[in-house]
Amino acid sequence: MKILLLLFSLSSLITFAQSEDSLYKVNRLDMIYRNLEYNTTAFNDLKKIWVITDPVFIREIFNRFVVKNALTINGKKPGLKLLEQKAKDIYSGDVFVELRKRYYDEEIEELRFFTESNFGTGKTIDSVDYFFDPIKDYIFIKEVLGDVVYDDIKEQFYAFNNLTKSYYDNKIAYNFDIKMNIVEPEVMFWSTTTNEKNKYLVSFFGKWGNDYIVPGWYMPYYVAGVKANFIDYLVNNSPHSSYTLNVGFGLPTKKQPFIENDIDDVGRRLFHSGSNIYFKVTGNPLNMLYSQLTDIDINIEGSLTLSQLKASDYSIRYKSQFYSTRNYFIISAKYKNLLKIMDLGLLGAGLGFSTYDINHFLLDPDINKLVDLESSTKGKYKNQIMAEATLQHNGGLLNHDISFLMTYNLTENNGYIGTRANFMISSTIGLDFRFFSAYRFTAKALPFYRTPIYIVFSPIIRINY
């Protein structure tokens, strides 16, 4: 009896060993077979995907897999009873077929059946949700379906829904760049790279108004100058960190849209009163102290008026009064990549402080020099704080840079709140739109030089290569 038990045990061990060895060989052969095909997993989201919705054609495909006994559930062949149960869903039209082509040719890489409950949900289908196991071998799929049906599937002569993800990649080039925007135009005319990673860019730029002081074209002069930009190196074609320097001069604007333009009409606007120089420096110097602060940009910006116009420069032959901003200074910090919000883009946040002067002048043709009606220099300056939230997305079909800005004037207990929205299609054509509304916390009316609503917009055309 003991000998029989021993022989039985040895036989079982040998059988088990052979079974284990056979399973190992099968898995090994399967791995070798899979590796014969070039792996394109990294491109799965870009492969052509569609769903067959034609119920008759779905029955034909299902029937061919049943005849060839080619369907599995969790790796096992389904029994007749289970197949009959599954077939009921096919009869009722609740089953669809999803197909995915290979990345580098027209062959069907994957075929799978799934039920209506998972169709059109937009959710990733997990393996437990499959009606049957997916078939991932185009040679096997072609063998089961036959050449005629297989070719019909590829030609898409039936009802289907296209689920292919469209891929848009619009990366910024650094050879030439021209942005035609009335509010903020720019033409890059020179660029170079010194050590195959950094960039030096030089551009002509323009700027009308300043949203942190007076939005849009309510400023009385147009700034034109030169901008120099240094980029240390690029990450996915975008600057890792960069530093820019803008220097320009203010050019007076005699006509401004949508508002009164004559001094004698005492319109709600500021007026030019002298030649001024503009400067702006932007960068992330905190990165030098701590590498984790790369995404924080510091901005220092200002305008200084170097001269004063005379009464004869205005061509006014009678007494009049007007307001003018001659100097301003801004310092702000912005965290660009605070949080990624799904496909909407990167959320950013910023804080800042600005100070500017408001001069009240009397224009008297009999007195060639402008008369300053504000006796106190201290009383001219207004101090305000700013808070900003941004949402930015680059590189896709639709690019946008949206900013929600609020300022509060500490001196006058008022301010404005609004948005700046820049939309571009393929970084080529778009619209720059800005809207701000003034508010106040006191019963005192807004200062006369302020307007309750600011609206600025401009079409954008960009040429970049």
Describe the model:
The radius of gyration is 35 Å and the shape is elongated. Residues 1-19 and 119-124 have low confidence and may be disordered. The chain contains five helices and 23 strands. A 14-stranded antiparallel beta barrel has the order 5-6-7-8-11-12-13-15-16-19-20-21-22-23. 17% of the residues lie in helices and 42% in strands. The protein has three domains: 1-36; 42-162, no CATH class; 177-464, Beta Barrel (Porin), CATH 2.40.160. By secondary structure, it is an alpha+beta fold.
CATH top level of the largest domain is Mainly Beta
Number of domains: 3
How much β-strand is present in the residues?
35-45%
Q: Count of helices? A: 5
Overall morphology: elongated
Task: Throw out a few tags for this protein.
465 residues, alpha+beta, Porin, 14-stranded antiparallel beta barrel, four-stranded antiparallel beta sheet, 5 helices, 17% helix, 42% strand
Describe the secondary structure blueprint for this structure.
Elements: H1 2-35, E1 49-52, H2 55-67, H3 80-91, E2 95-101, E3 108-115, H4 138-155, E4 160-162, E5 177-181, E6 186-192, E7 199-208, E8 221-231, E9 234-235, E10 238-239, E11 242-252, E12 276-283, E13 296-305, E14 320-324, E15 328-341, E16 345-357, E17 359-364, E18 367-372, H5 377-380, E19 381-393, E20 398-409, E21 414-425, E22 429-440, E23 453-464
Antiparallel strand pairs: 1-2, 1-4, 2-3, 5-6, 5-23, 6-7, 7-8, 8-11, 9-10, 11-12, 12-13, 13-15, 14-17, 15-16, 16-19, 17-18, 19-20, 20-21, 21-22, 22-23
Give the structure's gist in a few sentences.
The protein has 465 residues and is of the alpha+beta class. It is 17% helix and 42% strand. It folds into three domains: 1-36; 42-162, no CATH class; 177-464, Porin (Beta Barrel), CATH 2.40.160.
